[in-house]
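Hi support team,

I'm filing this because I wasn't sure whether my run with NAI finished correctly. The job status page said complete, but I'd like someone to confirm that the output block is well-formed before I use it downstream. Pasting the exact inputs I used:
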Amino acid sequence: MELNLSRSVAGKTVLVTGAASGMGRATAQVFAAEGANVAVTDLPGPALEQVAADLAAQRHSAKAWALDVSDHAAIRQVVDDVAATFGGLDAVVNNAGISAFCPIDDAGYDLIWDRAVVVLLTAHQRIIRAALPHLRRSTSPRIVNIASTEALGATSRDSPYCAAKAGVTGLTRALAVELGREGITVNAICPGPIDTGMTANVPDADKATFAHRRTALRRYGAPEEVAHITLSLCLPASSYITGVTIPVDGGLMARNA
Ligand code: NAI
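And here is everything the job wrote out:
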């Protein structure tokens, strides 16, 4: 077997979900800056258009697609359209996400649970299944699923989110094993506390206290610090890493005291 140890994604095509904000936006920017064609997908709205416009203004190859990842029918349509637009699809980054805090005794628990599972877990497998015919034609097919340190440990009253994210790590391992013979790599990243839209309503003082007490690096991470690991997993040279779950958490999981 001939190895391709290129450290470039130039000319590759990546589809990023939830790319209008936070880590998804940073991922789109990092890939675009490296010369990849980027399918910027998110819920419809000005934030999505703005990310694509910013990338186009920098003469990057990027286009926006409105895609609600809980809309089963829309997934295949958008994935196929992305592949047709850019002449293929090499990588998928399943990143779109929502918070899903809910105490187990809450009357609305089932609603939150169902939404968490659909958006955070079911969408991943649906997008992967839609992307597979295209990934199978790529010379460096890559799938990166964004889970969370909540897949590895747990915060009280966060069980729908924790369960869905743990599901993402299981899905990642299972598909890595199933698709490995085809050279398709499937990996998960578990971000720790990252400054994004999702954590925007946490007061700065609380963030600082939490980061100081819990992370080795004593600070929240920037979305770009996660995006660069995602990019690394998508390099042609990253061809012998699959089925892993990588914390990108400033040492949160490593720290006991
Ligand atoms: P964010 O809120 O800044 O971005 C999430 C994006 O997902 C938004 O643009 C939102 O519109 C989009 N989204 C939500 N529901 C969607 C749907 N049904 N269809 C399409 N797009 C949808 O949050 P962040 O932090 O950048 O989140 C990215 C991923 O990272 C999520 O999966 C999240 O669970 C995960 N994560 C975040 C952490 C953090 O500290 N910020 C920690 C660990 C994991």
